[in-house]
Amino acid sequence: MDFNRKEFLKIISLGSAAFLPVHTWAPRNSITNGKTPNILVVVLDALSASNCSIYGYPRETTPNIEQWAGKGIVYHDHYAAGSFTTPGTASLLTGLLPWTHRAVNFFDPIINNFIPYNIFNYFNQDYYGLGYSHNSLADLFLRQFMDDLDDHIPRQDLFLSRYWLSKIFPNDFDVAFVATLNAIEQPSLLLKSSLYFSEIHARIINPSQEKAAAKYRPQFPRDLPNIGGKYFLLEDGIDWLLNNLPEQETPFLGYFHFLPPHFPYNTRKDFINRYFMDGFQPPEKELHLFGSERDFKRTERDRRLYDEFINYADYEFGRLMQGLHSQGVLEDTWVVLTSDHGEIFERGIIGHEGLTLHQPLVHIPLVIFPPGGGERVDITTNTSAVDVLPTLMHLAGKPMPEVCEGMVLPPFNNEAIPPDRPVYCMKAFK
């Protein structure tokens, strides 16, 4: 008997009625000519459906997603399980709600009892699992799932320079990153840190990173995309997928969590000022009790910068889809596009921090692209991030997980979804 590599190494409250009919889909093997399909999940961090033209937003922010959606299933009322990365991503990767997996605060891990209930574990008998995240909060979960991942691409590998910490702390990069940010790089905390380290950082480390970024600055006049001042390009992440997926062991399950359009909204020059003085006037709303921004003009400026950054992410997603199509990868790959949470620019609230839980913070895109394409289907049933995992298992011909709080999404679910089915979003504090 021949053993593949996997076998050798190792002997996943809102309610509304949908008005669309249940669609009949061809059996999985007939779609992919007998091949087990790959699965690619692409997360664009902090992408609010409220700011996407595919969902009716007046500015044309997502033309490429709209174009490719002509061959996919578009979910119009899809919700994250939380308003920031930690609960939103943990629920997406486990099919569990925040009060179950308990990853609810900044840098919370999934509690140990529920680590085995992750998507890579459910698929790891016959799928090659690979994952990457720009976002350290999401990368924490990938590191929790290391026993079930075949290839965890180190977060720093897709930064512009291999940040010095990654050389000293290759296995603890994220902890060292946060500690350094607090102790060395934040001016307000320099008095608490070593004067020697802060001086080394200012004289040696910063110039080294600036040298790596210098050639790209003309393309990004507002500064390069970054997290905590560490630069990256979304183009590099897309190129990694285009260069590696065609040669990847199949079937594969890939999870790629890219930071744009998350703050800071540093878009490429092609999209700068695209919406400047375009006449768009969102309605002014009363300030929320917990809203801190009182300047409506500043709120609208930040909304415009965010919309322009969405253009950048949308363009690169379109380039990914076109490249995978040209390479033939889309012929036997399910592609899932979604987000972990949204952003808000109203009622004195900017971004996704604070004490509120309004619709733009949790209403996120979900588009599923079948292998080989198909006709567009629009789903208006309320759906949740916890539904993605059981749906992918269904599409792969796997049984429903024993512990799961989601359900198979229409049009793949032949059972009618109850019109009063609740969809939960949670924001918790210690």
Output mean pLDDT: 85
- Biggest sheet, spatial arrangement of strands: 4-3-7-1-8-11-2-12
Question: What structural category do the secondary elements indicate?
Answer: alpha/beta
Strand content: 5-15%
| Residue runs with pLDDT of under 50 for 5 or more positions | 1-32, 185-192
Find the count of extended strands (DSSP E, 2+ residues): 12
Q: What is the terminal-to-terminal distance?
A: 54 Å
Description:
This protein has 430 residues and is of the alpha/beta class. It has helices at residues 5-9, 28-31, 63-69, 85-94, 98-101, 119-123, 136-144, 164-168, 173-185, 195-214, 234-244, 296-327, 359-362, 388-395; strands at residues 38-44, 73-79, 128-133, 151-152, 226-227, 230-231, 252-258, 333-338, 344-346, 349-351, 366-369, 377-384. Strands 4-3-7-1-8-11-2-12 form an 8-stranded mixed sheet, with helices on one face. Strand 9 and strand 10 (349-351) form a beta hairpin. Helix 3 (63-69) crosses helix 12. The protein is globular and about 50 Å long. It starts with a helix and ends in a 35-residue tail after the last helix. The relative contact order is 0.23. Mean pLDDT is 85; it is low at 1-32 and 185-192.
